[in-house]
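In full, the data.
>
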Amino acid sequence: MTTLPLVLQILRAPHDAARLSAADWDLLIRQSRRANLIARLATALAPQLDALPPAPARHLASALKIAQRQRLATRWEAECIRRALVPLGIEPILLKGAAYLLRDLPAARGRLFGDVDLLVPKSQMAAAEAGLMVAGWAFDASLSAYDSRYYREWMHEIPPLYHQQRDTALDLHHSILPPTARVQVNTAALFDDLLDVPDLPGLKVLAPTTMFLHSAAHLFHEGELDNGLRDLFDLDALLRDFGQDADFWTALVPRARALGLTRPLHHALRYVTQLLDTPVPAPVLQAAAADAPAAQGLLDACYHRALMPVHASCDKRFTAAARAALYVRSHWLRMPAHLLTRHLARKAWLRLQPPAEALKV
């Protein structure tokens, strides 16, 4: 395998930071910021922070403070969500970053994220939306009628909500992939096995196997991979933590089959082992590989490029083409051809309009 980006090398082997030159440190900080991994890097290097050169140490110490501030803010945001929804008989499920944080998982250490994701049954979506709006969340004023319809008819979530005082963002989902997607998720089964959030009664998170599979599905159906390496490190951290329980490995592939997520599981296990050297039992890898795609070599070439930080030092030949190909693939996975053609044509037409005209549509 070709040389990995410096941020990936140091996150895999933090003790190697002691050998870095001033130019290396400059590159490392730049790459980690572009990959949204600066706080994770700071967490990995925290035991040796006092021995690091002063300039990079200041960047890393600042990132640790930002992560701690986000930890406090997210806990308060979760409490506000709880107050808005639990009295209505709704027990929302926190997803991804907020779930890692509120369950105090290793995946949360140094992880920065921009919004809170919630999952509720589709039958409760209208009540949840109303409850959140009463509590101060609202849609972006620039949201067009077409985009609102796009979310509500074809997607697995409503348009993003923003709190009018705190300016925090919230995504409210009724499934983890669009109902129009080529991968059909057994959404009802998502609610079968949930865990409580300590000290926040009424809030839930997905159980370990489902939490991992959701994160895998999110990454490998994503078209814009600016945070792809951060999300791959999430998968690595989840596996290293949950995998200490042998029952997790026994249940992982059967749970993926029950949910309809065997293909994203295969991708997740393949790339965490290849890029992060994550320990995965060989029988689990073999069972997951039963759903490998025919074009595995082409996908490898794309993901080995597109999962790297969006920084010139990480670009290889055909990196731009790989990112474009995965962007097209994500849309192909999300919608059938007739809807996709209509949607992309509409978006292309809007981009050609003057701003004032576009707002009228």
About this structure: Residues 126 and 132 are 10 Å apart (CA to CA). The chain has a mean pLDDT of 93.
